[in-house]
Amino acid sequence: MSMIRDLRAAVRPSLRHPLRKAGTTSPYANYDATRDPTAATAVVDCAVYRDGRRVDDRACLTPRGAMRQVRESGGFAWIGLHEPTEAEFAGIAAEFGLHPLAVEDAVHAHQRPKLERYDDTLFTVFKTIHYVDHAELTATSEVVETGEVMVFTGPDFVITVRHGGQGSLRNLRHRLEGEPELLVKGPSAVLHAIADHVVDGYIAVADAVELDIDQIEIDVFSPPAKGSTRGTDTGRIYQLKREVLEFKRAVSPLLRPMQLLSERPMRLVDPDIQKYFRDVADHLARVQEQVVGFDELLNSILQANLAQATVAQNEDMRKITSWAAIVAVPTAVCGVYGMNFDHMPELHWKYGYPMVLGGIAVICFAIHRTLKRNGWL
Predict the structure, then answer these.
(1) Which helix (H) or strand (E) holds 363?
(2) What pTM does this model have?
(3) Is beta strand 53-54 parallel, antiparallel or unpaired with respect to 43-50?
(4) How far apart are CA 123 and CA 88, in angstroms?
(5) Chain centroid to CA 109: how far?
(6) Cα–Cα–Cα angle for 192, 197, 203, rounded to 5 degrees
(7) Is-contact 181 147, C-beta < 8 A?
(8) In what helix (H) or strand (E) does residue 47 lie, and over which residues does it extend?
(9) pLDDT at 290
(10) Closest alpha carbon to 48 in 62, 38, 37
(11) Per residue in 168-226, pLDDT tens?
(12) Which of 14, 68, 105, 188 is the Cys-Cys partner for 269 at CB 3.0 to 4.6 Å?
């Protein structure tokens, strides 16, 4: 696997790394160590934690200063970034020795949830899901909004890179700072907290989506309102199915990484924290089953809705056919007596006209009664 990764790094066009010098192998070979890498405006928070407490030192407000504090006095650094550019992330990547492939994934985003190991660093990708409130579900409603959180976990640092307007980790950081007994476990405690935070978001979104599906189900199987027709819910069902599919793409690939973190011993994951990953994996498995069930249920609802539309069309065709049969009687009789022959039965009879009209009425009434009795009208 490492050979494949090295080959991928070798064949990538150099244009994707504008900081790369000719003849060098690292995209950060020309990084100026005298320049503060924390000049990047993408850094939203930076701190050093020692013995589970945040170090109150202005030197810790920059990634370089934070790492200097860690190397001198111990603890670990937690640096948070929001949608950094390649240039903004270059200095931080060089300072912490991050692998170029992981850096590229973190900068360009749109990654599949995964867990990768590069030397002494774990690179984890999470898809965040946010439920979009709406007064009424329509054929164009956006139900879920996705974002991404990438986490670099090292022996003495955690770097989080967030993409999208949702999934802020500010409240999570504040909550962890109130639980020093967890932060004292190191970077793996932060990784677990982020995973737990993301999966808890999945649970909340799954509950909200379930309410939308229940409403769709009620609308499909309830008697149609006066003036409405069956089959009008197809667009809403299909739109909700697309949103559930997007939800599924965020949940399903993450199940295997969480199982690895909970089952396989890793040097970067504290054994006490690893036990907590089991709980996250269990919750994620439950959400994954829910999402798969949503997809199957929407398939059934869509098929039922289409079947109802087909039945309604058949009923309409039967009514049209019934009235056509009734109209055919006067059409046939009037067609016969409109042929302008001189010698026709009852043509000059005094009671011929009312008799024909009466006969037409009786026959039409008999046909209407028979069709109505059989449920065609």
Answers:
(1) helix 352-373
(2) 0.75
(3) antiparallel
(4) 19
(5) 16
(6) 125
(7) no
(8) strand 43-50
(9) 94
(10) 62
(11) 899 999 999 999 999 999 999 999 999 999 999 999 999 999 999 999 888 888 876 65
(12) 188
